[in-house]
Amino acid sequence: MPSGSRRPPSRKGSMADVPKDLLDQINRLEDLFIVPTEKLKEITTHFVKELEKGLSVQGGSIPMNATWCMAFPDGYETGTYLALDMGGTNLRVCEITLLEEKGEFDIIQSKYRMPEELKTGTADELWNYVADCLQQFIEYHHPNEDMGPMPLGFTFSYPATQEYIDHGILQRWTKGFDIDGVEGKDVVPPFEAAIAERNLPIKLTALVNDTTGTMIASAYTDTEMKIGCIFGTGCNAAYMENCGSIPKLAHLNLDPDLPMAINCEYGAFDNEHVVLPRTPYDIIIDKESPRPGQQAFEKMIAGLYLGEIFRLVLVDLHQNPDCKIFEGQDIKALNKAYSLDAGFLSAIEEDPFENLSETHDIFSKQLGITCSRPELELIRRLAELIGTRAARLSSCGVAAICKKKNWETCHVGADGSVFNKYPHFKLRGAQALKEILDWPAGKGKGRGDPVEILPAEDGSGVGAALIAALTLKRAVAGQVAGIRNPEALLNCPMKPSTKEAGDR
Hints:
Elements: H1 20-33, H2 37-55, E1 65-66, E2 79-86, E3 90-98, E4 105-113, H3 123-141, E5 150-156, E6 160-161, E7 169-170, H4 188-197, E8 202-208, H5 210-219, E9 225-231, E10 235-242, E11 259-263, H6 280-288, H7 298-301, H8 303-319, H9 342-350, H10 357-367, H11 373-405, E12 410-415, H12 417-421, H13 425-437, E13 451-455, H14 459-476, H15 486-489
Parallel strand pairs: 2-5, 5-8, 9-12, 12-13
Antiparallel strand pairs: 1-11, 2-3, 3-4, 6-7, 9-10, 10-11
Helix pairs in contact: 1-11, 2-11, 2-13, 3-4, 5-14, 8-9, 8-11, 9-11, 11-13
Protein name: Phosphotransferase
Catalytic activity: D-fructose + ATP = D-fructose 6-phosphate + ADP + H(+); a D-hexose + ATP = a D-hexose 6-phosphate + ADP + H(+)
Enzyme class: transferase
């Protein structure tokens, strides 16, 4: 939605019967949540500086982690690879065969539920469970086979510092994990120990973040792809930097023209609260979160928090003597923190009926609240404001990377539940990019834009396999920067293609 628009175009005149006290609150919420073009540009300018600070020797709030993924795929990578994706809800194991045909692959996969008790258990319990799942997968798909070590790309989507591509020191747990004794340590040795204990034919080749995987998987079939993004439970991005622009790696004396994928971890943008337009509700979310003062950007735009922002506003309005909503009703269900998720807001924004009857039914069934027509109008507008703000702010990170790299055109591969499922998120984000980057009239509708955000390929599966393939290719070629034990990789039987990638 353009920054100056204060009413959704599909519901003109829908506020005609809303009493003045509710209209006043709607106007107040619009003032809080609408982010105008000028503010988007200010945020993006500060974002560029923070990206650069993260690459500096001193560092900053945004970690800008070097990943040691040092090339885009050329589409001719071949071989069979395992991919392991350890998410917050599921564990997924894939076997991916990259075929001779350019950009083609076959995949078989199995999903395993990540037990909730593991998230607060011990490190041994976690790695033993992961290894058990890998063992089940191999025994099922390769019974009684005498296999050489299969290269594995491990998608470990938690902030990690990597001195090597097959190594990663966990900076902090996210996604609800809180296992003692893991933060600040390399996660690879205990994982490898659990694999060795079961004598599994697996060689960890690359530890991968899902944003880097998303970028690489998308680039496998699209040579315009330069950025990978996640807009889901959390938010993050990865892009390819040149080593000469990474001062904190200068001591390694790498060729300044070598590419290096950077996992930004930019959910931590503006932890100092310099530029983001935080509302009182954002401040409450931060204060009551397990880690106050961290992930400031993420807490305003990620799926984990959208429903909670919405809930906090409604509870506040119910308690406001100047605005009577849900009067005389028990809001016990609404008072429960994090009881509403982004899907709840999605359903409200998708309600196709002029009288918002589906929204009425959702509130009645899930919260035990009967809403009047004016209350439904306020609810709908609030959902639009929160969803639109998330989409517009999310574009600041993409725009900042483009500005830093002086990219006027590129494709961005995006994955995550908010990007894929939240109504209007893509169009609102495209509109914000148009405003930030000053595109000419007619651009900013999504398809064909100079910077175009597209649904990504399977970053945690195909992307992890491709990064394993690219790492093997480097080891074979003797390009061993950032590979801890290149000799061990040469024992993997699946040798990738040695065709040279074209210019990108």
